[in-house]
Each structure stands twice: as C-alpha cells, then as structure tokens.
Design goal:
Strand content: 35-45%
Radius of gyration: 21 Å
Helix content: 10-25%
Number of strands: 8
Shape: extended
Largest sheet: 6 strands, antiparallel, barrel
Length: 151
C-alpha cells in the first residue's frame, strides 16, 4: 500500500531527478541541442536507401521483394502494396526539408515477423536493408518508414 508520505517522497525524488537532467542538458548520454538532428554516421552514407524516394517505388507496387533476416534460414517474399508520402506542415514551417514516406507490404503466407531489419532484394533496386514492423490492423501487413529530413 502506498502511503501519502511515500507518494510525496517519490514525487520529490522525481522532481529533483527531472530538474537535474534538464539543467545538465543531457540525459542517457545524449546532449540537448535544440532543433538539431543527429548526424548521419559516415559508414551509412553508402547505403542505397539514402537515395530512394517514394516516387521510385510507385511503379513497383504489386511486385515482390525477397526478404531475408539474419536469423532466418529461408527467404520470404513480400508484395509492395502501397506507397504513402508524408508532409508535415510543422516541418516546413521550421525549415526542415526532405522527404518522408512509408512502404506497405503484404505477405501471402501467414508470417509473424517482428519489428526488425531485413535484407530486401528486388530486380530493380538490388539488395538493401530496411526495418519493417507489423501493422496490427491487418494480418500479414508490414510497414517500412523512410525519412530523409534535413535542416
């Protein structure tokens, strides 16, 4: 049972901890720099996903992508069923440029992939890595979200 005294003590400790983190400007090893993005690590600059746009994928709706996860022995196939491009007015107002889009995939087989990185292979795009997550609204649906944003 939580007493009033325990509650007030816990609230006081949480306030002190929160104030300390805010005043120091860093938490969990991250430095607080207002309105700045994290730099792209140099080793990922050769990743082909950085050059993909949503428009690149539109002609390939209803085509199959072969996927492989490092823990899976066999490959699976996902069909690209939709490409949605996003534009947030708040980003434009703050001077953030770039593109955000999602790729929606469907599996014909019953699959239970968890959110993870997979190696994708397609006859037009070649081989690249994407993180996909299951979309809970419909079975066997997976989504990858790609953001190319910069200030």
């Amino acid at each position: 049972m939580i007493t009033r005294r325990n509650f007030i003590q816990a609230l006081g400790m949480a306030t002190v901890a929160g104030t300390t983190i805010c005043l120091s400007g860093s938490a969990f090893g991250q430095t607080l720099k207002s309105k700045e993005f994290f730099a792209i690590p140099p080793e990922t600059l050769s990743d082909p996903v950085l050059s993909f746009t949503g428009k690149d994928f539109i002609p390939f709706i209803n085509t199959d992508f072969q996927i492989r996860h490092e823990n899976l022995r066999r490959t699976e196939w996902l069909k690209l069923i939709d490409v949605k491009e996003f534009e947030h007015k708040a980003n434009v107002e703050e001077g953030i440029r770039g593109e955000s889009f999602s790729l929606m995939f469907s599996s014909l087989r019953e699959t239970n992939f968890k959110s993870s990185r997979f190696e994708f292979t397609h006859f037009s795009f070649g081989t690249f890595m994407l993180t996909i997550s299951p979309v809970s609204a419909e079975p066997n649906r997976y989504e990858a979200i790609i953001n190319h944003l910069e200030r």
